[in-house]
Amino acid sequence: MNSTTPLLSSNGASTSYSNLTEFPPLVLDNGRRRIGTKKSLRTKIQIPLLCYARFTATMAYFSIFPYVALMIQHHSSSRATDIGIYVGLFEVLFLAAQALASIFWITMADKFGGKTILISILLGTIVNSVIFGFTSSLWQMALCRCFMGLMSGGDAVIRVMIGKRCMTETEATHGFSLYSLSGNIGMASGLVISHALVNRVSHYSTILKTSSFIEQHPFCLPGITVGIMSAACAIVATLFAEDVKRDADEAADDTASTSSLQTSWTSLRELISSPGASSTIPSFLNISLLGSAFTVVTILALYTDISQGGLEFSGHKITVYMICQGAFAACWLFMIYPALYQPSGTEKIISSSPVIFLFLFMCFGIMNVLVRSGSEPSFFLFRVIFGAMTVMGPAIYMSITAVYVGLQEVSPSPRELGLLNGVAEAASCLLRLIILSIGIFIYAFCNYDRVTVGYLNWTVLLLAGLSFFVLMSPTCTRLTRS
C-alpha cells in the first residue's frame, strides 16, 4: 500500500483487518525515511506530553460530577427527582457541542498546526473550569457545559497528533495505551479532587480566611484547582510540544493535497465506505457508546443509594476503587494488550469486547441484589463478584485502545487520519447524545412511576451490549471462516 493506492479496491473485494494491520503509508513511509535517525529527548517526550493534555482535559470534564447536583439544588428550587434530568440535559448540550466541534478542530489543526490548536483548547479548558464554579443560575451552567463541549471536540486532535508520531505497530499500541490510561487517571483525579474540595469547604475556608467568599461561591474551589492544573499543562505544552516535522517529500504531498482540498472533502464518502473504515467506524461507535455509558453509570451507581439500585459507597471507598481501577488499567494496557495484539490483531480484540461489557453490566445488578438481601453468604458473594469486576473492568480500556489503533491502521494518509478521527468522534457524540436523551426519558419515567431506576439502567445497558454482540457476530463469522 502506498500514497497512490485507491481507498476502494477495483474488484470490489472485501478487505479484512488482517490486511490492514499493515500500517498505512503515514507510518510505513516515515519509518523507512527515518531509519538510522536517533530520536532526541524532546522528540521522545512528545507522546507523554500529548497524554498529559488528555489527562488534563478528562480531569476537567469529570471534575464537575461530584458537585453538579448540589449546584443545581443550590441555584434553583427544583425537586430532588428533577436534578438528574437537569444533569442529563447539560450532558446532552455538551455532546451536541462536541459533535459540532470535532471536525472543525481537525480542520484547524491541518491549517494552523496541532500545537496551536492544542494550546487553544487548553486555554479554553482553563477559562471554562474556573467560570463554572462561579455560575449562579442553570442557564449559566448550561452555557459553560456547551463551551466545554466545544473544547472537548479537540480530543480527536490529540489522537491524530499521537497517531502521526507512531512509526511502528509497537509505538502505536504503546502510544494509544498511554492515551487511554491517561484518560482513566484523569477521570479518577477529577472525581477525587472535586469530592475532596466540595466536602471540606468549611475546613479550607478557615485555612484561607476567606469564609465569606467561599460561602458566597461554595463550588469555586474545584474549578480553580482544575484551572490551575490546566494552566500548568498549557505552559508545558507551549514550551515543549512540537508539531510533527515533515521532510520535503511529505511537504510536497501535503501541498498537493491542500490544493485539492475540495477533492479530499468530496472523497469523504469513499473514505468512510472503504472496506477498512466501514468496519472500524461502527466498532468505534459501539465501543465508545458502551464504554462511556458504563463509565458514567458506574460512577452514579457507586454514589446511588442501595434502594435505588446502587452500591452506596462512601467517598473514601470510591477513591480506593478509582485508584485500583487505574492500577489494573495499566496492567491491561501495557502488559496484556500488547501480548494479545501481536498474535490476534485489532479485529479479534474488538470482537471479544462484547463479552467484557456483558459481564460488567450484569455484575452491578447482581451486586445490588446481594447487598440488598443483607445475609452473610450474599455479602461474601458480593465481595467475590466486586473483586472480579474490579480486575476485569479496566479491560474495557483495552477495547477502546484497539479501536483507536484500528482507525490508525485503516487511514491511508495523514490528512485522512485526521478526517477519519474527526468523523468518528462526531458520529460517536451524536450517537451518545441520542442514547443519553433516551436515558433522560427513562430516568423521568422511573421517577414519576416509581420504577427502580438502577435496575432499569443496567437492563437497558445489558440489552445494548447484547445488540452489540449481535452486530459483531458477522465479523466473528468471517474470522472463523478465514
From TrEMBL:
Membrane-spanning intervals of the chain: 49-71, 83-106, 118-142, 176-198, 219-241, 284-306, 318-337, 349-371, 380-407, 419-446, 453-472
Membrane topology annotation: Multi-pass membrane protein
Main location: membrane
Record keywords: Glycoprotein, Membrane, Transmembrane, Transmembrane helix, Transport
This protein's GO CC annotations: membrane
InterPro entries from the UniProt entry: MFS, MFS_trans_sf
GO terms, molecular function: transmembrane transporter activity
Localisation: Membrane
Record protein name field: Tetracycline resistance (Probable transport)
Organism: Fusarium pseudocircinatum
